[in-house]
């Protein structure tokens, strides 16, 4: 954590200096720094004032001074820093670059990945003749919001180096490349194309994008384009990498080594470091609540591709920070998250350095800073399907001192640099976007401030920015009036406003040195971009907006008349004295290789893996919950190969299993396993292997429990659909199966204690059939398997329609009885009590009540205060006089994900009831939630 405090001090000084740039009286004292002085330093060099002229000025009086003070000079960390010069009551500052040093040779590190992952079949990338592993990750070319998962991909690869390396990209399919360029263009990298090979040299670590051919216009309603691209993340060589041996000696290090892992939530604590090594791909996330002094670093990848994101309730956010401080995140790549990526809320002292993000699914924000203080986000690449860099207020808390520096953005949907819409808090002050390159901005404003609440937003800086391609289509793609280049707006918003009818203000906003390379749509000769500024009224207004050397529609802005501003905007000042140069090109070192140089290359080989592994810290030992009285009888089992939807191979004589792992083993609760024989060579997803359990008589089945290998340390999914039979065919003498549940992925892994519960509509079934479908990929088992199968009746509440108090967003009460513990109900925040009534349809002798939350390690522990009452009548009202207390008064119940996130209440004696009500008066979960349950299961 030694990096954080030093960086934070420099950051605060930068922001303080920016504050001095606002409206000044001409009689205010000021310092002017001039001359030719040193602005580039190596690590740990001392301050050199030679050539610096410091002038103290008051009004028309000037004096050159030498006894000034120098503070905040810091060369302990590579990157940009700020020096502050003070004399009497005046202060000035200037930026310096801190370089790694002089680089006279080339160091190269390449990380391979296990064979269970497949490198791209579109591109082969060679660095100094050694291949990189090329990931194919989702991107979304649609420019309108949708929950539908895209089917379009981009290629991503990474490596570490210092010095100079040669890169070759070979085209592996029939895609014809006639044009290629390396971005940011400011690096001025020469590219050659020979046949199906693209070649170029890189001299500095940076996050590069190689664009192939021209963008292709689409005929879809959004009217946008598709730009083929490869993202190549060239990291600097790691300083002080952590080895497995070092981590084993330090309890404060969580080490995730090379390989493919499923961790779900990584259990980090205050004072710990999580190191994700190069060559590691992790399906998981971090949830940091009220933690301090945490470091997350390495060269590994966090992927969300296995997690669903088809509705708001489904999300797996890679990094959640709440009420935490002194957090350092460096070097990690985030691919295909199931939602947004970094969510920092009510936290402070955060440094995010050299991260890489590519998102493609709903609400795919990049870095979202919400009601935080003292934050730096730097040296990073962020491609998003929602806002890339965004600052917000939530929970009526303020934001102070946020710096986004030296970042590269590609925004497929929404804004690239955004303050708002959520501004529910007193202030947002001192936010800086500097040295930003926007490769593409396809949808909404490049730079925006949207104040939909009561915040006083001030001292916002957009400085040294290059927009390579600003190709907005807006929300209404056939129109041009919402193709915003810059948008400053104060307005009520039905989705985001939390402060009702109270609006805030926007003032002291600076746009400086902003260069635009292209702002014309394909086939158009002129730009349609608009700069909009709309205040709310005479008091809730926009004021003091400064433009200095800003390009717009092909030329620098020279007049405030070029801005569409309403009558509640005042004091727009425009200066245009220099040609905009945009974002500075940052070089990590001074390169002095000479004509001949050494290449020190290390290729770290991949671990040998048969499947995705579960680390020790992710293992769950929570017993399966009570599911009712187990259905038992004289059952038989068959395993057959499915030919068509109707023909499940029931007439096959020999079971489809392998010797030693016979299908009969699933009927015995021991260590024996059933493993199906291999798939046919020509098998497609239409092929399936049917596991059929024939009952000795009809049974009321409502739940199926499947057990995997008890000793397995692998995560493996099986795609299973459920069929059931109520009759026997008079022709074949076989059960007549019909579909009850469509195919779904079910996870078998030690993190879920290697069991799966499947709930289906109860019926009098004489047989149940599981169809294991042929799905390929790293997450799927090579062959269907089971250790043991059990059948249970349905919960007394299954399929019933609950009645509840008002609820949040999409978290409706129907989720409580749908048989899915992953979907949940949440009552309206800050509206207590939250309550739920379930009518079981008839009077029942109730003995066991199970209350669930999603069994996810990402849910922090919470205590809910719950009062439970019951009635023998069909109740629909909270205020009914028929309610009787199940227990005296409310009780506190702890939901802990390490214990399965479930409360099981066993009554000493059964109680006759038809309706039951759960009244929740408190929930201790951080973030301020209402009553929460994912499933209410009741058994006799």
Automatic annotation (TrEMBL):
In terms of domain of life, where is this protein from?
Answer: Bacteria
One GO-annotated biological process of the protein: polysaccharide catabolic process
Asked if the record carries the keyword Lipid metabolism, the reply is no
Positions in coiled-coil regions: none
Q: PROSITE patterns, alphabetically?
A: PROKAR_LIPOPROTEIN
Q: Which GO terms describe its molecular function?
A: polygalacturonase activity
Q: Where is the Ig-like domain?
A: 38-98
Q: Per the record, a Pfam family?
A: Glyco_hydro_28
Name the UniProt key words of this record, in alphabetical order.
Carbohydrate metabolism, Glycoprotein, Glycosidase, Hydrolase, Polysaccharide degradation, Repeat
Matching InterPro entries: Galactose-bd-like_sf (IPR008979), Glyco_hydro_28 (IPR000743), Ig-like_bact (IPR022038), Pectin_lyas_fold (IPR012334), Pectin_lyase_fold/virulence (IPR011050)
What role is this protein assigned?
Pectinolytic enzyme involved in the degradation of xylogalacturonan (xga), a galacturonan backbone heavily substituted with xylose, and which is one important component of the hairy regions of pectin. Activity requires a galacturonic acid backbone substituted with xylose.
Q: Which PANTHER family match?
A: ENDO-XYLOGALACTURONAN HYDROLASE A-RELATED, PTHR31736
The family assignment reads: Belongs to the glycosyl hydrolase 28 family.
Name of protein: Glycosyl hydrolase family 28 protein
**Which species?**
Peloplasma aerotolerans
């Amino acid at each position: 954590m030694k990096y954080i405090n030093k960086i934070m001090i420099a950051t605060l000084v930068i922001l303080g200096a920016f504050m001095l740039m606002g409206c000044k009286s001409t009689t205010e004292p000021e310092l002017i720094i001039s001359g030719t002085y040193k602005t580039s330093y190596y690590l740990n060099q001392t301050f050199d004032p030679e050539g610096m002229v410091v002038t103290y000025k008051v009004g028309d009086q000037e004096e050159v001074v030498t006894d000034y003070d120098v503070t905040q000079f810091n060369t302990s960390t590579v990157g940009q820093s700020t020096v502050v010069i003070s004399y009497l009551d005046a202060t000035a500052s200037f930026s310096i670059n801190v370089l790694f040093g002089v680089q006279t040779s080339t160091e190269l590190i390449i990380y391979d990945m296990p064979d269970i992952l497949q490198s791209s079949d579109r591109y082969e990338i060679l660095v100094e003749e050694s291949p990189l592993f090329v990931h194919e990750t989702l991107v979304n070319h649609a420019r309108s919001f949708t929950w539908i998962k895209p089917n379009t991909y981009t290629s991503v690869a990474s490596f570490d180096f210092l010095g100079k390396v040669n890169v070759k990209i070979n085209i592996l399919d029939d895609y014809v490349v006639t044009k290629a360029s390396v971005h940011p263009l400011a690096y001025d990298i020469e590219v050659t194309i020979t046949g199906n090979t693209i070649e170029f040299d890189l001299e500095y670590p940076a996050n590069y994008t190689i664009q192939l051919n021209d963008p292709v216009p689409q005929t879809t309603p959004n009217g946008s384009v598709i730009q083929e691209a490869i993202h190549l993340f060239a990291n600097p060589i790691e300083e002080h990498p952590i080895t497995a041996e070092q981590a084993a000696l330090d309890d404060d290090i969580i080490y995730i080594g090379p390989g493919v892992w499923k961790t779900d939530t990584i259990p980090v604590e205050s004072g710990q470091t999580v190191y994700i090594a190069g060559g590691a791909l992790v399906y998981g996330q971090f949830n940091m609540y009220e933690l301090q002094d945490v470091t997350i670093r390495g060269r590994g990848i966090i992927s969300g591709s296995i997690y669903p994101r088809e509705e708001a309730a489904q999300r797996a956010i890679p990094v959640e920070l709440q009420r935490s401080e002194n957090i350092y995140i460096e070097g990690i790549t985030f691919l295909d998250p199931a939602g947004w990526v970094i969510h920092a809320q009510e936290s402070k002292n955060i440094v995010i350095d050299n991260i890489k993000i590519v998102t493609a699914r709903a609400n795919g924000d990049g870095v979202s800073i919400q009601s935080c203080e003292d934050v730096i986000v730097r040296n990073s690449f962020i491609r998003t399907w929602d806002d890339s860099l965004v600052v917000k207020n939530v929970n009526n808390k303020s934001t102070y001192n946020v710096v986004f520096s030296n970042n590269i953005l590609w925004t497929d949907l929404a804004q690239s640099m955004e303050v708002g819409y959520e501004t529910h808090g007193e202030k947002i002050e001192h936010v800086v976007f500097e040295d930003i390159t926007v490769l593409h901005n396809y949808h909404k404003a490049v730079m925006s401030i949207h104040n939909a609440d009561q915040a006083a937003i001030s001292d916002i800086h957009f400085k040294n920015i290059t927009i390579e391609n600003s190709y907005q289509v807006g929300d209404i793609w056939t129109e041009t009036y919402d193709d915003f280049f810059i948008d400053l707006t104060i307005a009520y918003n039905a989705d985001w406003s939390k402060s009702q009818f109270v609006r805030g203000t926007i003032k002291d906003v600076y746009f400086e040195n902003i260069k635009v390379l292209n702002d014309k749509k394909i086939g158009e000769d002129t730009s349609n971009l608009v700069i909009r500024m709309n205040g709310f009224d005479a008091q809730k207004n926009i004021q003091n907006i400064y433009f200095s050397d800003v390009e717009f529609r092909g030329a620098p802005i020279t007049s405030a008349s070029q801005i569409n501003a309403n009558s509640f905007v005042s004091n727009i000042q425009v200066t245009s004295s220099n040609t905009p140069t945009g974002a500075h090109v940052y070089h990590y070192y001074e390169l002095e290789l000479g004509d001949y140089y050494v290449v020190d290359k290390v290729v770290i080989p991949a671990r040998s893996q048969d499947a995705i592994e579960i680390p020790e810290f992710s293992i769950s030992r929570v017993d399966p919950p009570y599911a009712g009285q187990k259905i038992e009888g004289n059952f038989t089992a068959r395993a057959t190969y499915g030919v068509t939807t109707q023909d499940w191979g029931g007439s096959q004589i020999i079971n489809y299993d392998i010797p030693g792992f016979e299908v009969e083993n699933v009927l015995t609760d021991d260590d024996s396993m059933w493993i199906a024989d291999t798939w046919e060579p020509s098998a497609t997803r239409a092929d399936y292997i049917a596991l059929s359990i024939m009952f000795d008589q009809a049974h009321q089945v409502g739940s199926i429990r499947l057990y995997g290998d008890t000793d397995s340390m692998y995560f493996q999914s099986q795609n299973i659909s459920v069929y059931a039979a109520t009759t026997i065919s008079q022709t074949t003498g076989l059960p007549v199966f019909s579909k009850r549940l469509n195919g779904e992925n079910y996870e078998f892994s030690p993190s879920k204690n290697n069991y799966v519960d499947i709930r289906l509509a109860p019926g009098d079934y004489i047989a149940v059939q599981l169809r294991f479908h042929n799905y390929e990929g790293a997450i799927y088992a090579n062959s269907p398997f089971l250790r043991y199968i059990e059948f249970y009746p349905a919960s007394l509440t299954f399929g019933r329609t609950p009645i509840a108090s008002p609820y949040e967003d999409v978290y409706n009460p129907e989720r409580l009885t749908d048989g899915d513990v992953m979907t949940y109900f949440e009552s309206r925040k800050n509206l207590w009590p939250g309550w739920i009534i379930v009518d079981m349809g008839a009077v029942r002798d109730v003995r066991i009540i199970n209350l669930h939350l999603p069994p996810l390690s990402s849910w922090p522990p919470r205590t809910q205060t719950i009062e439970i009452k019951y009635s023998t009548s069909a109740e629909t009202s909270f205020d009914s006089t028929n309610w009787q207390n199940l227990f005296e008064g409310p009780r506190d119940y702890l939901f802990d994900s390490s214990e399965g996130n479930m409360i099981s209440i066993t009554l000493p004696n059964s109680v006759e009831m038809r309706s039951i009500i759960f009244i929740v008066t408190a929930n201790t979960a951080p973030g301020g939630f209402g009553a929460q349950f994912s499933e209410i299961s009741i058994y006799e």
